[in-house]
Amino acid sequence: MTHQPNRKSNRLLNLGLDLSYTVHEKIGCTWRGPEEDYHMLNTDGSVQQVGNGFGGIIRDSQGNILLGFAGSSSKPSVIYQELMTIAVGLKQAHLLSIAKLEINSDSLGVINIINGEVRP
Q: Which residues form the RNase H type-1 domain (predicted)?
């Protein structure tokens, strides 16, 4: 199945992104927003043979995208990439004057480091 823009993907078009891709397997998921008056930072980092990278997105409590970012680093550590994502996201949230921010990461290692449960 090849995806063509529809009403839901208009948000991406508003960001200047024109997407066309093939869905190999459908996996159901939903986004759970933060509490009212909060913003949410969703993060991810990756280390692969072809390169390392990180990225994040900041949304308001209604799910509106306020900012998206991506970067790369030569450090071949997923923990490092995940921590970089959170650091950049916190800086961007500060620049946007966001005071209440929920951070979501899929890295238990990073969560444990931030909570002081393990040393980096």
A: 42-117
